[in-house]
Amino acid sequence: xxxxxxxxxxxxxxxxxxxxxxxxxxxxxxxxxxxxxxxxxxxxxxxxxxxxxxxxxxxxxxxxxxxxxxxxxxxxxxxxxxx
Length: 83
Known about the structure:
Low-confidence stretches: none
Distance between the termini: 31 Å
Mean pLDDT: 81
Radius of gyration: 17 Å
Number of strands: 6
Order of helices and strands: HHEEEEHEE
Shape: extended
Strand order of the largest sheet: 1-4
């Protein structure tokens, strides 16, 4: 949420995103059986439209915090450092 506020996202949208992304629970269903519910520890659920945008905003400044001798390659949903 801090990074989004730094990008100028207004408080109303930040509150909506926080409510949407935090304290999520999930379970697995196989046919008619459900598992117990567990807390989701990753903040962005897979498959949501905002997922790629939130990911890019989150990693956008990663290269600013690495040593110049490290080559950083940013992929669609991952990063890789070559030392």
